[in-house]
Amino acid sequence: MRNLRALSHRCRPWRADMVSRSFASADTRADVDADRLYDAIRSFSSPDELKQYFKSSRIVLSNEVVDGVLKRFRFGHGNPLQALEFFRHASRRRGFDHSAFSADTMLYILGRSRKFDLVWEVLTEMKRTDRSMITPRTVMVVLGRIAKVCSVRQTVESFRMFRKFVPEFDTTCFNALLRTLCQEKSMHDARNVYHALKHDFRPDLQTLNILLSGWKSAEEAESFFEEMKEMGVKPDVVSYNCLVDVYCKGREIDNAYKVVERMREEDISPDVITYTSIIGGLGLVGQPDKARDVLKEMKEYGCYPDVAAYNAAIRNYCIAKRLGDAYSLLDEMESKGLSPNATTYNLFFRVFFWSNDLWRSDGLYRRMMDAGCLPNTQSCMFLVKLCKRQENVDFALKLWNDMIEKGFGSYTLVSDILLDLLCDLGKLAEAEKCFLQMVEKGQKPSHVSFRRIKVLMELANRSEALQNLSEKMRILQS
């Protein structure tokens, strides 16, 4: 194996962002106001209550506050209709203009709930008030949600509808469509749409790189790479990184190194993405120690590892079941000022789940929360499934209460398993409390969970409590 040092050029130094973007760990006035607003909005049952609240409240609606509230609705899987009512209320405030971030977040929330009619309503309102907020990123946000549940034809039709909304319906928007199709559909679909629409736009290097990045086989990627050069397009570092990545995922490490050599001949310096792909590829061929050496070598050439690079190296050790080395890299990350993300911790949670190790899962969860890193849905599912397997109610309820308090994870997915655990063990009071907490969040428990609680309440002759839950389910359903 060639030494990566011989293939490397100096990369532009990468500086870690030392400031956490997590709203959970921030302690600013805007975050405090956003927390208060988010909790208040979820308790309102009508738009009039929201209006009355703002009349009596002294909270000033700044872009930071509105962005924070909508961010909480997104990551807390809050009620999309409550979020929309708040979004529209803010729009009506004199002197207030939404940021592009808040608009895109609102569209994401509606799209995730498949409320596409409301998505187009909001876009129409944005076009009327400030059309410049509708950007290619907006196009990608909306199309990404549509493509998840609709056909390619419907996705393309929605893309064409954006011609009426986007100030400049150009190649950047076309690229957003292709990227969405590569992510949510198939390369065959993306390639067909590319050929069908390329004459309406002017494909650029980014267009071709998007298509190049979507190929799964090395043969197809190499063929398209040569096609790009025949079109007179000069590949850049992104183009070469696509080739390196496809070779590494195919366990063709020698070919990946040859691509790095070609980069050198073209006077293109490998960047952190190049190295991250190689780190992952070395792990796939069972060489986690060589992958760790890459972390050291890239630093010597001024290309500093980021969280993704460390995650790739940690993943290698987790696959090899060398958790001591994995934890060593986790400590090294933090010592370098890099904040591990949910993906980092999930690498460990996956190992603990399959080894049925709840004790170490609990310890890592505490470390994660102490670091201010909120778990995502995958983290929660690993943990709550492990709790159910071991019939550990205490840890399951601790996780659930943290979710309720801090607004992370999917309440619907986690509650199905949690309520199943509680009902199995006859914990009716706890199950009822979790059910009501979820309803207060504007989230509808599944009918399966409701039926299990219903049976227990009927056996316990708690008709009044059952009637209360039935009424709440009816309201949520409507």
UniProtKB/TrEMBL annotation:
Signal peptide interval: none
Similarity section: Belongs to the PPR family. P subfamily.
Alphabetized PANTHER family for the sequence: OS03G0856100 PROTEIN, PENTACOTRIPEPTIDE-REPEAT REGION OF PRORP DOMAIN-CONTAINING PROTEIN
PPR repeat windows: 236-270, 271-305, 306-340, 341-375, 411-445
Record-given protein name: Pentatricopeptide repeat-containing protein
Transmembrane residue ranges: none
Pfam families (alphabetical): PPR (PF01535), PPR_2 (PF13041)
InterPro entries associated with the record: PPR_rpt, TPR-like_helical_dom_sf
Top-level taxonomic group: Eukaryota
Keyword set, alphabetical order: Repeat
Record flagged with keyword Signal: no
NCBIfam families the UniProt entry points to: PPR
